Amino acid sequence: MAIGVALLAGAAILAPLAYRAVRRSCRRHGPYRPRSAAVAKRAGQPITVAGVAVAGPGGVLESQLARTDCVWHGHEVLRHFWVLPGDGDEGQERACDSIADYASTEPFGLAVPGRTREGSTVLVDPAGAELSGADMCLQRLVGRPQRGVPAPADDLLARVKGRISGIFRGETIEFEYREWVLRHGSRIVAHGMVELRDGRPVIVPPPHGRLRVERDDSAARTPWFEPRTVGAVLLGAGTAVSAGAGLLLTLGLG
């Protein structure tokens, strides 16, 4: 009888701990499954969702400079120059300025690997997002034009989207074109807030911050049953067994 009561008391103590452990485990892994219906329930709340990037409603994009298929692309133009020396200065100092940059704003999808059918993806609105880990698909240096000499093969200038601006300081050395893409199937993590558009969940920037999109293969491949998850399950199972054994002993001996 005393053993049964002790087991029941232990189960009563462990039950809240097991409940909290299971809830923490569910919250830990929930973001790694970008299901449209589940994410929609978090409308107006911050969220972290991980999965694979897929084409959005407008289909696969083509990058501006390299003409590479992707779901997002961005490019930048740098002007390298010699800093003009002041009076009494010796030598030359090399520097560079960004004179153009652009990032696509078309929404793309985030899906569970292998489940990319219509209605099963969550949209990501990348306008103004901070995106890290994208693939650099182009990097080219083009020398400055010389008077009376045909310009180098600068076929990229006409493809630059947006305005070229900046203070052209010093003496131009060359221009550098760089472009990054997020390819279809890339594993990413998006940190933002859920907004419903026509009933469909879209990950957007939080009210006082920026949407962050990261390339994170390790997080996306995290197995469902990590040590924390296993611990939560074992704690819950141990609580149930303790309660059952205690109840049987108490009733059997009573």
Automatic annotation (TrEMBL):
Q: What class of enzyme is it?
A: transferase
> Key word Metal-binding present in the record?
yes
Judging by the UniProt lineage, the source's domain of life is Bacteria
What is the predominant subcellular site recorded for this chain? membrane
Record-annotated E3 Ubiquitin ligase MUL1-like domain positions: 105-209
The record describes its membrane topology as:
Multi-pass membrane protein
According to the UniProt entry, what is the EC number of this protein?
A: 2.3.2.27
* MF terms (GO), sorted A to Z: ubiquitin protein ligase activity; zinc ion binding
Q: Name one Pfam family in it.
A: GIDE
Q: Which UniProt keywords apply?
A: Membrane, Metal-binding, Transferase, Transmembrane, Transmembrane helix, Ubl conjugation pathway, Zinc, Zinc-finger
Tell me where in or outside the cell this protein is found.
Membrane
Q: Could you give a single Gene Ontology term from the biological process aspect?
A: protein ubiquitination
Query: What cellular-component terms does GO give this entry?
Result: membrane
- Record protein name field: RING-type E3 ubiquitin transferase
